[in-house]
Amino acid sequence: MIESEKVRHILYGGDYNPEQWPEESWSEDMRLLKKAGVNIVTLNVFSWASIQPDENTYDFDRLDRIMELVQENGMAVCMATGTGAHLAWMARKYPEILRTEFGGQRRKFGGRHNSCPNSPIYRTFAKRLAEKLAQHYQDRDNIVSWHISNEFGGECYCENCERAFRQWLKRRYGTLDELNRRWYTSFWGHTFYDWEEIVPPDTRSEHIDDKRTMFQGITLDYKRFLSDSMLEAFRLEYEAVKAVIPDTRITTNLMGFYPGLDYQKWADHMDFVSVDSYPANEDTYADIAMAHDLMRGLKQGKPFALMEQTPSVTNWLPYNALKRPGIMRLWSHEAMAHGADTVMFFQMKRSLGGCEKHHGAFIDHVGTGQTRVYREAAALGAELSALGGQTLGARTPAKIGMLFDWDNWWALTHSAGPSCELDYVQEWKRCYRALREMNYEVDIVSSRDDFSGYRILLAPVWYMVKEQDDEAVRRFVAEGGAFVTGFFSGIVQENDLAVTGGYPGKLRDILGIWVEECDALSHDAENSFVYQGVRYPARILCDLLHTEGAVQMDDSGYETDFYRGYPVLTKNSYGKGIAYYMATSSSDDFYRKFLEDICQEAGVQPVFRTPSGVEAASRVNQNGIFIWLLNHTEEPQEVCLPWEGLDVLAGSTPVNGTITILPRDVRILLCSAGCSF
Asked: How many angstroms separate the CA atoms of 81 and 46, rounded?
């Protein structure tokens, strides 16, 4: 959340790119945006080229004029630093700023994220622009936040990065002896005798392709290094703005489950989290919610800013379907239901050229307010204006935490075995989806977070258990929490070296089991097991485990193969709490049943029961408990309310009993009596 005295209502608007349009069109654009209820625009995202035509010239005249026009129309500004794409003259004069691809090919000028994050030249120019912008606009009272660069991402394997990687390793390990030990370089005679011998892991060195690497430890550290390198580039601009305007609020737009950057580490250096949300056609409402919950979790439950979404159509999917009528409003409210305090879009006006000319916008190429998308945008703007600031700052009262970790993601992605079918995010999603579709509130947490407010902690496929992570879980369970993990967990430590003494390593005593082997099943193969009288499939991986204090649940055991009868589900009492283990991957039906049973045993309730396809999500602030009911189906749905409330979007009309929610419709209810979960 932007958290500013200037912000007393939901911010509604998005990216406006005046440099792409004749100046005589700006006034009409502002009129249409204001009429649609827009109260904030993001400016200067890609204006570096129009501001700095050469090394020493900075010209803010054009930006000044649009700033004046925006202020005249009563709109706030999210000011971007404009450094998301470097300049043609810069690439020609200083080619060392250009990135080198994974295969060793040096880029030329073009594209967008094409700057080496470790280039001293790029860093100098980016920091200088941020500083000059802050100095020029420090007295503008309608700037409510600053936006560094745009969608940081990508990789580089150039000489700048090679040198910086060696320095990063020196800081991390101190000596070559320690590095050789932690990387296990005795394997295949990889011992390093001098820091200069270390090179980036790409297809010229350790990689067979973008996933398969012959030295996981080296690849894992290079992933960490690249994330840290871009974070340093972000911090340089952040600090340049803060040095001039200490009390401003600064962010950069993250991208949900983006594999390249450790957002949990990044969030520590951002004043508030913001996100771009562009679901794929096949994504379910639970998939979309999961990405929002991840963003909310980066700041331990604080609200975030929805910085970008499309009002209609994307341009980069294989099939770029229109958002059907009502979906823009529905998905905007879903973001709010999961913690967003802004509803913003890319873009306000559709580009005429380039790869985004077919990407949706409030103002289409026709240039009027006579389009379906504009009418929907204006209706949503009016609705959010009426809602005002009632829900601002509200938190999600989750009693379930799910542990997500970028190091685990990277390590499993680049693991040599056990199965090409094993996907960290997909396996993790199975558990989340089951809980969300039953309307259980979930916080997505890191291993560094405080677990004390939760009753249940889930850590699916917790392959890598890092230093002290087990102690946090041990305390959680000992003090009465329910811990749930599963197959292929506790296998390696933070440098991807296998643990000794038996799997699941440091979790062994908590779970009360020893995993002796792990069987990988082919794509079409499966085993099976029975839980609560129902047969479920066992897929992808099957752990062969022995109980060491844990009990086998409900006589659940594999039904075929030489490990027939080996436990699939176990339960171990530890201190005042319980630790559960799932030895295989199974179906959605299984996860729904198993996790619901655990929730009931732990005394955790869903927001309340709804028909399939109707989502219930909650947030709480000083104004009360707000419940969003979102009908993601194409049919009217009846929902039986377990308490009395007020329909916030209908002028706080009292509601109780059974209500009907129209297709793709949204209701926000403020609980007035007996609301608890």
From this structure: 8
Separation of alpha carbons 232 and 168, rounded Å: 12
Nearest to 149 by CA among 287, 283, 44: 44
User: Residue 510 corresponds to which amino acid?
Assistant: I
How far, in Å, are 175, 182, 263, 334 from residue 198 at the CA level?
13, 14, 27, 47
Cis bond leading into 460, ω under 30°?
no
Q: How far is CA 267 from CA 171, 302, 579, 608, in A?
A: 22, 11, 30, 32
Q: How do 624-631 and 666-673 pair as beta strands?
A: antiparallel
Q: Confirm whether pTM is higher than 0.85.
A: yes
DSSP 387-455: HTTTTTT-B----EEEE--HHHHHHHHT---S-TT--HHHHHHHHHHHHHHTT--EEEE-TTS--TT-S
By the 8 A CB rule, do 654 and 676 touch? no
Indicate the angle between helix axes 424-437 and 588-602, nearest 10 degrees: 60
Cα–Cα distance measured from residue 220 to residue 206, given in angstroms and rounded to the nearest whole number: 12
Catalytic residues: 151, 308
User: How far is the C-alpha of 315 from the C-alpha of 255, rounded, in Å?
Assistant: 16
Q: 292 near 275, Cβ under 8 Å?
A: yes
Q: Assign 651 to helix, strand or coil.
A: coil
Q: What is the rounded radius of gyration, in angstroms, for the C-alpha atoms of the chain?
A: 26
Helix (H, G, I), strand (E, B) or coil at 379: helix
| Nearest to 13, CA basis, from 314, 304, 330, 343 | 343
- CA–CA distance, 31 with 436 (Å, rounded to integer): 40
Question: Which amino acid would we find at residue 451?
Answer: F
Q: What strands lie across the sheet with 644-647, from one edge to the other?
A: 614-621, 624-631, 666-673, 644-647, 653-655
Mean pLDDT by 10 residues, the chain (677 residues): 72 96 96 98 96 97 98 97 95 96 94 92 98 98 97 96 98 98 96 97 94 94 98 98 98 97 98 96 95 98 98 94 96 98 97 94 96 98 97 97 98 94 96 98 97 97 95 98 98 96 97 98 96 97 98 96 98 98 98 98 96 97 96 97 94 94 98 66
* Three-point CA angle 215, 218, 224, nearest 5°: 140
d(CA 136, CA 545): 65
